[in-house]
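G., before I forget:
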Amino acid sequence: MRRVSIYDTTLRDGTQAEDFNLSLADKIRVALKLDDLGIDYIEGGWPGSNPKDQGFFEEIRNYELKHAKITAFGATHHPGTRPEKDANLRALLDAKTRVITLFGKSWTIHVKDALKISLERNLELIRDSLAYLRPHVETLFYDAEHFFDGFRADPDYALATLEKAVEGGAECLILCDTNGGNLPSFIEEAMRAVQQRFPHVPLGIHAHNDSDVAVANSLKAVEMGAVQVQGTFNGVGERCGNANLCSIIPNLCLKMNVACLEPDRVKKLRSVSRFILELANMPPNRYQPYVGRSAFAHKGGVHIAAVERNPATYEHINPEQVGNRRRFLISEVSGKAAVRYKADEYGIPLSSTDPVALEVLKQIKELEYQGYQFEAAEASFELLLNRAMGRYKRYFELIGFRVVDQKMSEDEEPVSEATIRVRVGGQEEHTAALGHGPVNALDNALRKALEKFYPELKGVELSDYKVRVLPGKEGTASKVRVLIESFDGKEHWGTVGVSHDILEASWQALVDSINYKMYMSEQGKGKGRNGS
Amino acid sequence: MRRVSIYDTTLRDGTQAEDFNLSLADKIRVALKLDDLGIDYIEGGWPGSNPKDQGFFEEIRNYELKHAKITAFGATHHPGTRPEKDANLRALLDAKTRVITLFGKSWTIHVKDALKISLERNLELIRDSLAYLRPHVETLFYDAEHFFDGFRADPDYALATLEKAVEGGAECLILCDTNGGNLPSFIEEAMRAVQQRFPHVPLGIHAHNDSDVAVANSLKAVEMGAVQVQGTFNGVGERCGNANLCSIIPNLCLKMNVACLEPDRVKKLRSVSRFILELANMPPNRYQPYVGRSAFAHKGGVHIAAVERNPATYEHINPEQVGNRRRFLISEVSGKAAVRYKADEYGIPLSSTDPVALEVLKQIKELEYQGYQFEAAEASFELLLNRAMGRYKRYFELIGFRVVDQKMSEDEEPVSEATIRVRVGGQEEHTAALGHGPVNALDNALRKALEKFYPELKGVELSDYKVRVLPGKEGTASKVRVLIESFDGKEHWGTVGVSHDILEASWQALVDSINYKMYMSEQGKGKGRNGS
């Protein structure tokens, strides 16, 4: 079976995306996760360009990776100096990686308009930079920036730059569609010309998605013999993003019979995709191929009936192969079949006659109709299950709260204050707190009231708070769904609330968060429930 | 120049998407918009399947379309009856469209597991259904459902179904990748076989995006000679969606020299894309190729400098060709160049020495840093501009407000009440209102106070209210951005507010909304500012 290397550039090219930012600590966590998945190369950054990237290479050296090789990325040396004097090449070597990827210019307009040097001088930069790095590094790759646009504009020159890269000692020539403007048929044409000129040099592909064909361009290159595919998780990247590895990997493994991950790792794909989105606080795209929440969701009644008889009728793969799952959208179906599917979805051991399970399912259906959503709020779901099974314990009782938000003039920020009365085991507590906004005031007051009775709540922080206005035309009276993620230093758990009143919705999610913490403490539970 | 027909199925297959729903009135508005764009065929629905679709066909007959033909979609007749007795075929004819698209089964497992009839009987259904419709309709298309999967499983049978469709009188055979599981190389292989068998029959393509290659599959089919491409706007559709016409259209027109819209219409693409998303209350995907907000956004300093010299260096097309625009992400750059770009973005006539313009730009930069975002809030932006130019008029002064949200027991919804004091031209008004939640109470109180002085505010409704928690790790104290869209029966306008306090953020957006309405009334302005 043929094998192709996967080269991930989420940490470098991916972070060029608008609204996708990772801290140094996040970058380390992503690298370890990608290593665990079995990615071959992880491009950590451009050490010459910013201090965060330099910090990454220093830090990652403290970890022993299982499989992946970390690579450092950088440009050819400055035209005004020599390789051995060039700060950028120096930074690349200082990153102390086993692999370096150097990029150079293939397109004449870039040589003239961006570098502002002669075409001949650019050829020297490519060869000399690579030749200088060559003895100092185990593996050396060459990214031919704008190769396809360059080839269209001046095929001879574009091929000449590759010639110099080979002379300089590059082991693999990665052909880049940097602007994402090329279609698969042209990828084929250009790549054929490269293969005729360099029949024995390994090639790679680096595609961007500006024409919505980055995945197809990458697959085309593999079909033609490319041995390396560069891309990012979830397709993040500048403008419309890079080629999406979450699509390329399963297309290669499951459809084209090309190996790239160990077979048992492909089913981790969805969880790694989600992990990265969560770290970057990016909302997932529910329609994302393979790993999206809707990727195996069936809505039409005809489709559901057919999938029930034979899943292949409307599913191109078994969703479990990529760690995803089938969903039947309950609103469109009814009766026992729908209920049984919903039970499967939540892993409820349902003999179809069990009255408790049926009651729970009825509740879920009703709550989802109201706008609740349990995928990211498994703690709320588990509490609901417990309640239906009579295992619910009340840790406190609310007597009442009042939240006041007062603005005293046009130029002053309002002041938010919450008062609260709760009862715990016969004892009443009446207290008050201020906050940054009314939700925060209520949150502070509730914690203040309860920490007296349950000191373990002091260690709980809210690691995420999300508000979604539910579709409707009610303006400021619209329903909102609040999702809260809590963290106690060890476990993450998600809870949900829905109401026309944002304070009530937040209250529901806060109460579930606290109840779940107390429930975990009593059970001595070790398993997190972050819904990811 | 070669021409290909565009067949839009946003209103039929598109509405199978999770979370994408259009009312009957919305469907009419979308159809008119697509007609205006110059789409050839607009599939309005499946009249046999639900009353909303039937209503669409009745309603759309009242409009005279400029170019598009409305098509009705339906299945082959029920195996237990004859065509002339079949309710589904009857409903198709009752839709009274000039075009009908009939779909049939190409894949043996569907015939056996879904229809549960013999392979021979399925062939009869296809031929007889089409032959029955043929004399009653101007144009008749055949959608070969699951053609590619069917061809892989049993090529002879799949081709036999097409044979029957041709016998029945179909004018175009549309090959469907219904499950979205096929890659471009297989599309090519199967289509070649079809062309060998039916060298003179026009072919079309209908692709789904489950493998992230729906656009590439569609382009491949066009390369091979397909004369019709089916898809949806923004790629909405069941599971991962249909082939995205927002990508296919510019790829055809701008890259492949294949005509499909009138040249001057392509630049409407972005606004039609946004219009449909807004009607469906779907958040736009900022990374969407061609039409997304980030599609021509440049972040890296190197890229910005190069684009400044020559846009082709990092842009595959001129963004104006599809109605989009270039953006430089201000955070990453500095100095005069950045300021000038920001001015261009907002259309400010800036001589680089104008102190007012420079002051405005400084404010925008600061506000964007705080989390304000003006693309969907052009009314707020225009007010800001007016203030800087000294043209700002105060329509009222806030003396103070207080919002109280009180919950009296665990099972009761809280009660929200707002009190407010404002001054208008020396007169003070002190009033109060209840609401569904605290934001709504404040909204109600403010309107109540001001409508006394400005009766024109009575006609203003809030047509949309959105809350976004800005990235950060502050839990319930996170900053939120509120976007409000207002409508006065004629104009739409968007306003924005940002604060740690959701009431304060909503307040800012509400105040801007009211000020903008008053400003428009005074100017007698006719132009909407909905930022779309």
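Chain B has three domains: 5-279, 297-370, 459-532. The longest helix of chain B spans residues 502-523.

More on Monday.
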